[in-house]
Write a structure and sequence with these properties.
By secondary structure, the chain is mainly α. It has a domain of 225 residues. Helices cover 45% and strands 2% of the residues. The chain has 9 helices and 2 strands, in the order βαααβαααααα. A two-stranded antiparallel sheet has the order 1-2. Helix 5 packs antiparallel against helix 7. The longest helix is centred in the C-terminal third of the chain and has 37 residues. The radius of gyration is 29 Å and the shape is globular.
């Protein structure tokens, strides 16, 4: 049973994405150069975060909790880093703010809430436990970077917008990086996951019924002979005390026929990826129903998006293994060359006079 199912607020890291919009070509053309100021600042922030994490590791090992001041600093740096990653990966055209705080940004990270218990054994072996997640993230990053990111950069530079089939895989990578960093730096005990997206929860956003529009034919007479038949009901929902009536449910938006006048208006489905309002602090802290992710935090990879992610995993694995093989070959070659220039020790001969 998950913590959410038990009524305990989830301590996972989440991401909220705004709908995709067109981006300025000048900004796209010089995206890497525009990100340099942030990377310079983040370098020094990460150096300081290493010392904060070491102190926090000892505190969490003995108390089972990360100190509040350490959680605040680490969470702020990770939030800053995630916004820059989303900007560099062409997920948004808005320049990231130089801030530790939660800002109004199209790619909005939410690190885990503060003051959560940690497993001390998991804290003790955190570096070892993190290795599989780190390797997997590196593999996907290789697959989505060389040379796919260059192709995506050309597409956005020409078309002015990231294709949805590529937008979602890069969004999943950035979110996984958020969860991986949150786990490694002890903001949460939940192991990073979700690189292949989340289960499709589209059914949660639909009305209770999804059926053809009601028939215009008159209902057959019922009751004793000579009685007046009751007026037809436009729709009815099942009750807790019995089965649903045989009336036809209301149509869903997109089907033929307007809904009955007495039916409550059904909101249209959101347009575009991430077209969900920003969650309030209460919505972020509340446990999701049935252990599911809330709608605002759900990222589903289907169709071409899932195909590109699988391609990135396969291609990234080839690059990851090939890089290690080439590195070992170059290292062995350098060692052999150094041995060729090392003179052999001179033999010592005793001279007898």
């Amino acid at each position: 049973m998950t913590t959410a199912a038990m009524g305990v607020p989830s301590r996972r890291a989440e991401m909220w994405y705004a709908p995709t919009v067109r981006q300025g070509r000048w900004s796209v053309g010089f995206r890497l150069l525009l990100g340099i100021p942030h990377y310079v600042v983040l370098f020094f922030l990460f150096v300081a975060m290493v010392f904060v994490a070491i102190i926090g590791w000892f505190a969490a090992l003995f108390t089972g909790r990360l100190p509040l001041w350490a959680h605040t600093y680490i969470g702020g740096v990770i939030r800053w880093d995630i916004r820059v990653n989303a900007y560099v990966f062409l997920l948004t055209d808005h320049y990231p703010p130089f801030s530790f705080d939660d800002e109004d940004y199209p790619a909005r990270p939410f690190p885990p809430p503060e003051d959560g218990p940690l497993n001390r054994w998991a804290v003790l072996f955190r570096v070892i436990l993190f290795i599989p997640a780190s390797v997997f993230e590196s593999i996907v990053q290789y697959g989505l970077t060389f040379p796919l990111l260059f192709g995506a950069w050309l597409i956005v530079l020409i078309e002015g917008e990231m294709p949805p089939a590529l937008y979602r895989p890069y969004s999943a990578l950035v979110r996984y990086h958020l969860r991986a960093q949150s786990y490694f730096f002890m903001l949460t005990s939940e192991y990073p996951w979700g690189m292949l997206g989340d289960p499709d929860i589209g059914a949660l956003s639909t009305p209770p019924f999804y059926a053809p529009p009601p028939s215009t034919a008159a209902p057959p007479p019922s009751g004793p002979p000579g009685s007046v038949p009751p007026p037809p009901q436009p729709y009815s929902y099942p009750s807790e005390h019995g089965p649903a009536s045989t009336s036809v449910p209301p149509p869903y938006p997109g089907t033929a026929g307007p809904p009955p006048a007495s039916a409550p208006p059904l909101p249209p489905p959101p347009a575009g990826f991430g077209a969900v309002p920003v969650p309030s602090p209460g919505e972020r802290a509340a446990p999701p129903s049935s252990g599911r992710l809330p709608e605002w935090a759900t990222l589903v990879l289907t169709g071409a998006a899932r195909g590109w992610m699988i391609f990135a995993i396969v291609w990234g694995s080839i690059l990851f293994v090939g890089q290690g093989t080439i590195r070992n070959a170059v290292s062995n070659d350098n060692n052999n060359n150094m041995n060729m220039y090392v003179p052999a020790p001179a033999a010592h001969h005793d001279t007898f006079t």
